[in-house]
Automatic annotation (TrEMBL):
Entry keywords, A to Z: Immunity
Protein name according to UniProt: Peptidoglycan recognition protein 3
Domain (Peptidoglycan recognition protein family): residue spans on this chain: 149-291, 317-459
Positions of the N-acetylmuramoyl-L-alanine amidase domain: 161-297, 328-465
Similarity-based family: Belongs to the N-acetylmuramoyl-L-alanine amidase 2 family.
One GO BP annotation of this record: peptidoglycan catabolic process
Pfam families (alphabetical): Amidase_2 (PF01510)
Example of a GO MF term: N-acetylmuramoyl-L-alanine amidase activity
UniProt keyword annotation of Transmembrane helix present: no
Top-level taxon of the source organism: Eukaryota
InterPro entries assigned: Amidase/PGRP_sf, Amidase_domain, PGRP, PGRP_domain_met/bac
Amino acid sequence: MRVFVRLSQHINSKPHFSLHNNPVGSTETTNQARTTLSKMTTNSRQFLLPSILLVLAFMAKPSDAFTGECVCVQAKTIAARWSPDTNNVTYGFILNKGECFKFLSSSYSYTLALQENKGKLIIPRVDLKSMKCPPKQEDTVLRYNALCPSIRSRAEWKARKPKSVTKLRVPVEYFIVHHSEGRNCSTTAGCDKLVKGIQNFHMDTRGWADIAYNFLIGGNGEVYEGRGWTVQGTHTKRYNSKSIGICMLGSFQKYVPTPLAMESLKKMINCSLYKGQIIPNYTLAGHRDLGNTDCPGTALYNVIKKWPHFIKKIMYPIIRNRTEWGARKPKSVTQLKVPVEYFVVHHSATGSCTTTEDCDKLVRSIQSNHMDKRDFVNIGYNFLIGGNGVVYEGRGWSVEGAHTKHYNSKSIGICLLGNFMNEEPTTEAIESLKEMIKCSLNKGQISDNYILVGHRNLGDTECPGSDLYNIIKEWPHFIKS
């Protein structure tokens, strides 16, 4: 015999629990024991359940549970162990005493299914309560373990002890996908060996505290605990403190991972969400979206970019390199140690330009002035921006400039071509300036808490011109007076 507790609601009546018996062989299924909890008001009932297991299961797919109204179900007295139901119920989860599970629901049906106990657990009394979540929890989704894949622990794959640990503050914003860019594996023994090899390389060759990733996934679909849920990884520069990083074992430039591996990756995203490790409006990204790399491989990248929450492409401005504009060779080079603290905006205090030909000529003229008359080793700025929005490589990302006395070793200096004392730069130039700030941040050239300044903030000058200065002083991170 199968017994269902049906939560039902009738027009103009209060919600209530009812018991429903299903004789063996009956055609009635769990579909007839449905209700829409999102329409329920606060309700509490007690009922006696001799010798049976309680299973709370939902009929909707996991991805369906992300829209609508937040509802809580709470077990107030005793725990009940999760058990699958083969009759139209796809997932279930453990009810622990005092826990309130939160999920989003609009038109999805949820069933309380009571199954025969095999003598392992007797629940004499269960007190359940369903309610609308408080407003501050409206964006909270159901947290439970049933959607999480089995994870092979560090002890099981015989991980080395980490040299140090930095705690990860959750929930984080990013879920970042990598590939190991080496051989793949399809057996537990093979994957164990591969994961241990990666850990040794990261710790011994790269000098890191531990294996870089939070988790890794083998071709057999087995998930490996790297640094785990609570420890910050070293997989994506500048994003380690705000992400979960998962590495697919193998090289996926031309071939996608196995279906088992891809299914485990999907489950790990859902698991991260349901466990509260990532925020509900998390951003899914490939490593290449956040750094100068081909990782996680083009074939894998082309799959995940079609998944929900995938990152909106970070648009980098077009940069005209030194060869393209005919730059002279520098007399010497001093490397710039990044990330730097300051992003300094200048104007050239010259005529402006709006075509590639005119801007090329103007940039060459500025370089000649700096090298021949001021005796600089090169053009002073890291980058320059024309009225057409084209960005010019000056000294570039890795070389110290000569644009702001006392600040060259700790700044990126960008010059807008023209005089902006009494007129504003073109819209194209301003947009490129904004993109260069974002680009500097995303590439790790400037620190997360960088300071945006005009040249006049750091020296006795009118640069970058009053009209341009009045624009940038309203932007985020502008220097405090």
